[in-house]
Design goal:
- By secondary structure, the protein is of the alpha+beta class.
- Helix content is 58%, strand content 17%.
- The protein contains ten helices and ten strands.
- The strands form two sheets. The chain has a five-stranded antiparallel β-sheet with strand order 2-1-5-4-3, sandwiched between helices.
- α9 links the parallel β6 and β7.
- α5 runs antiparallel to α6, α8 runs parallel beside α9 and α9 runs antiparallel to α10.
- It starts with 6 loop residues before the first helix and ends with a strand.
- About 1% of the residues have low confidence.
Length: 412
């Protein structure tokens, strides 16, 4: 019997094994390639999803950025307050309110120096304010006068801040601009009204003095003279009456008429200070102060005079004497003083009268509010002096007495 292990058989068997092995390897290779392709496809799908998600995030961010830009437009460009950004003093950005305030198109403002719109009398304040901001300071709001493109005067209030952590020369500043023109015009109108009111008050005070003089003159020249003549007649009748009872009645009427006549004379003096014409302001002040303050109330009166003699208008003398009298009455009533000094000093332009006591004084911050210092009499004197170009001021402190200075401008 022949063996099966012939070369031909061995070769056929080996080929079959090789074929089988190749088929197995090919099968494994196909399986491996399939797995790699599937894995790659999965990775591509995941990457595609990531890109889609990133694209959605970017789209959402773009929408939010657009919404933020619209809000910024509403808050910045449409703000009722003017906003502008300065770079080395040049306008780098400005909102619509600034353009409207300055009377020009916003594009015209860009790269313009803001200082060109600042009035000459406000230039120093503007540069000082910007320098303070640039140095990291926080100055209070600054008021400026601007001149618009159409040459209108514009009053504004500016507040600023640096756009960097610490601003230096050449870096950016942002300014907020508020239009206060109406406020300034109202303040000026109120100031002008106060001046007119003071002038009117002065004229009324002087008119009051004239009226008092007229009434006093009539009272003295007619009523007082008539009363005096009537009193003389009653005195004669009382002496010549044979009836004692009738004589007593006439005597009582004579005495009562004497008191009425004295009251009329006192009233004449209260109304017009007729002694001013006779003695003059300084002499009458000394006479009245000695009688009514020193002798009547025991307060020592000292007078000083620089020796200069000036001719004062009767109206000014009347206002000054009325003020001196009102102030000395205040000393008697409220100061608790032992001594009061009255000084007269004159220069080329004015007469200065000072009244200083050694009384209890008061808080200087409340001196202008104190009813004793700002009573009707003192107030009318103050307004009359101010209307004549003068003034009345107080200087006082607790325990240090009170000094009052009246300044009356000389006429002509």
């Amino acid at each position: 019997m022949e063996s099966n292990n012939t070369p031909v058989n061995q070769s056929s068997t080996l080929r079959e094994k090789a074929t089988q092995k190749f088929e197995r390897m090919e099968q494994k290779s196909e399986e491996g390639r399939g797995e790699s392709v599937d894995k790659l496809l999965n990775e591509l799908r995941v990457h595609q999803i990531e890109l889609e998600m990133q694209n959605e995030d970017l789209r959402q961010a773009q929408l939010e950025l657009e919404e933020s830009r619209n809000k910024y437009f509403d808050l910045y460009d449409l703000a009722p307050v003017g906003y502008l950004t300065l770079d080395q003093g040049l306008i780098n950005n400005a909102n619509l309110a600034v353009a409207d305030l300055l009377g020009c198109n916003r594009k015209v403002l860009i790269k313009q120096r803001f200082s060109r719109f600042v009035a000459p009398d406000s230039q120093d304040r503007y540069y000082l304010y910007c320098n303070q901001i640039a140095q990291g300071m926080t100055p209070p709001a600054c008021e400026l006068k601007l001149i618009t493109m159409d040459e209108r005067d514009l009053y504004v209030q500016i507040t600023g801040l640096p756009l960097t952590e610490r601003a230096t020369t050449g870096q950016q500043l942002r300014l907020a601009i508020t239009n206060i023109t109406r406020l300034k015009l109202a303040e000026k109108e109120a100031h002008d009204y106060q001046i007119k009111l003071k002038n009117l008050t002065s004229k009324l005070t002087l008119a009051e003095e004239h009226l008092k003089n007229h009434i006093a003159t009539q009272l003295h020249d007619q009523i007082s003279q008539s009363l005096a003549m009537l009193r003389v007649s009653l005195g004669r009748l009382a002496k010549s009456s044979p009836d004692p009872e009738q004589a007593e009645i006439l005597k009582n009427a004579y005495n009562q008429l004497g008191m009425v006549l004295q009251e009329a004379r006192d009233l004449t003096g209260e109304l017009s200070f007729p002694a001013l014409k006779l003695f003059g302001l300084k002499a009458l002040t000394q006479k009245w102060a000695i009688q009514e303050v020193q002798e009547a109330h025991g307060i020592e009166v000292l007078l000083s005079d620089d020796g200069h003699t000036v001719s004062l208008d009767q109206d000014i003398q009347a206002v000054l004497f009325r003020g001196i009298r009102e102030l000395l009455i205040n000393v008697v009533k409220h100061a608790q003083a032992n001594r009061v000094e009255i000084g007269f000093n004159t220069n080329k332009e004015s007469m200065v009268v000072t009244i200083q006591d050694d009384g209890i004084g008061m808080d200087a911050s409340r001196a202008g509010l104190d009813a004793n210092l700002r009573g009707f009499g003192i107030l009318s004197v103050t307004e009359a002096l101010e209307g004549l170009g003068g003034s009345l001021t107080f200087c006082t402190s607790p325990g240090q007495g009170c000094a009052v200075t009246m300044v009356a401008r000389l006429q002509g």
